[in-house]
């Protein structure tokens, strides 16, 4: 019994297909991972060309899983593939099926984005801290230079001596 609301764990959605990829090429690309039950590349009724995605159904879930692990991000005819578990709605509703994606389907990219943003913030904070440290050093050096200038200033020296004498 297939859970209609869940993902079909033995059917893969394959996106990013080059125009020249047909069902037999798709079949050939995925057959190394196990026995394939079905390959579909839904055609655009107007152009009679596929809409750059297709579906590969394996007999075994493990084979589908291995194919997804190996083929997601792989290149076929110069295009990078996106391989995920298919959702039943995608097969029925074509591209509109995206709206039916469960929240977690985008979780990986969401986590990656979060990590990248955190990394950027961390780098910016480090950068800011190093600039502040450099400015602090610069201020100290300026202050020291000014102290040093007073040493050479005869008036300042005299004043300092007078102050010293008054204290003793």
Automatic annotation (TrEMBL):
What Pfam families is this protein classified in? RRM_1
Report which superkingdom the organism of origin falls in.
Eukaryota
Q: Per its UniProt record, what Gene3D superfamilies does this chain match?
A: 3.30.70.330
Location of the region described as Disordered in the Swiss-Prot/TrEMBL record: 120-168
- Point to the regions of Basic and acidic residues compositional bias: 120-160
| Annotated keywords | RNA-binding
- What are this entry's molecular-function GO terms? RNA binding
Identify the SUPFAM superfamilies for this entry. RNA-binding domain, RBD
Q: What InterPro entries does this protein's entry cite?
A: Nucleotide-bd_a/b_plait_sf, PPIE_RRM, RBD_domain_sf, RRM_dom
Keyword RNA-binding recorded? yes
Residue span(s) of domain RRM: 10-88
Name of the protein this chain belongs to:
RRM domain-containing protein
Q: Which organism is it from?
A: Chenopodium quinoa
Q: Which gene encodes it?
A: LOC110686096
């Amino acid at each position: 019994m297939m859970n209609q609301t869940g993902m079909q764990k033995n059917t893969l959605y394959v996106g990013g297909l080059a125009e020249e990829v047909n069902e037999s090429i798709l079949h050939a690309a995925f057959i190394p991972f196990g026995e394939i039950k079905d390959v579909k590349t839904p055609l655009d009724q107007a152009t009679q060309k596929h809409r750059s995605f297709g579906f590969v159904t394996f007999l075994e879930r493990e084979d589908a899983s291995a194919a997804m692990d190996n083929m997601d991000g792989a290149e076929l005819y110069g295009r990078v593939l996106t391989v995920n578990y298919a959702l039943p709605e995608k097969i029925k509703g074509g591209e509109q099926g995206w709206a039916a994606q469960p929240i977690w389907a985008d979780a990986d990219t969401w986590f990656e984005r979060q990590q990248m943003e955190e990394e950027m913030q961390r780098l910016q904070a480090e950068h800011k801290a190093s600039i502040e440290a450099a400015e602090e050093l610069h201020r100290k050096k300026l202050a020291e230079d000014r102290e040093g200038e007073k040493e050479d200033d005869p008036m300042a020296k005299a004043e300092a001596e007078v102050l010293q004498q008054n204290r003793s």
